[in-house]
Amino acid sequence: MWILFRVVVAAAAFAARLTGRFRRRRGVPTAVGDATVLLAQRTGFNREVHYSIGVDLEASVWFRLQRETDRDRWFKRVGLATEIQTGDEDFDKFVYVVSDHPMFASLLERSKEARGLISELLWAGITRIEYGGGVLWCSMKRKPSEHELSLVARLGKAMAPLQDDSSSPFADPFLRKALAIEGVVWSIAAYAGSSLLVTLSLPEIYLTDASYLLPGLCIAAGLFALLLAGVAVLMRGSSRGHRLVIESAVVLAFALPCAGIQIFDDVNRGLDSSEVKIRTNRSECQKLVSVNSGRRRGPRTTVTHWLHVSGSGEGITLPSPVRFPGQCEHAPRGALATFTIGRGALGGAWYRTITVGDFTWSPP
Fold it and tell me: What is the mean pLDDT of the chain?
């Protein structure tokens, strides 16, 4: 049931990431001479206001333009990024073109006006010029001037020849790959997030921490290397290749440790049918209360129960004490404790059930 839930969450994240790429922003129409632009603003996490100037454009391309950085140049030198070159040396050194669509490359090569307007806007304080369908947006961190509004309106006219192209947006040879990679990476992040609560309970499910942590982290390391290598190979020759490598590395570095441990747990317990029963002659419950007083929101009290037992069977020895997920202090001292152990399909021994007196616990 929980495995199906995590798979559904991952699939939903995949779909949300893909549809989010084509979600259109809205703006307030503003007259600029004989043209109309759209104005939009949003407040960031640090309460800083970001402004966007848009102009209507219906084209079958996708692109993003911004200042070229030393990082962009380094990735081009090592071959992880290949950018459109227009033949205009000043433009090519100053502007990084994130697009692989042949129609857009052709427009930049032949339109000196478009190159000039793009350069002037980026010099003026525009941080990003991007188009993903419907509206060409120019973003900046301050309120735009009338001159900048007119520059965006002129840029919209300079980009108008893109509307004559009737090809599919996927004529860009790397767009489908980029969308698929982003969907997969963020699906893994969603899978890890949806399994976090179960992962936090694993110390109570497995006999030892090493039995699930080490193999889970090994799975995570293997997937990290495999996925990053796959991204680099698939996006080699693309202008957005290095950005996808960096984004994927950051997201996977946070998500894969939890996802790797959860994958191990899903396989180890899901495919395990073994049962080993171990009965102890006596048990003793110890209740430990710890108070963390260093928290800003006030002290937090944590209560854990430890069951002191001794027993083994069929090559499995119980650790002592056992962290018990229930309130075992109500059980009579010396009460019989019964442990049903699964060996694990991948070798990670885990508690199927723990019974102390009248109380029986089983993992989620």
Answer: 81
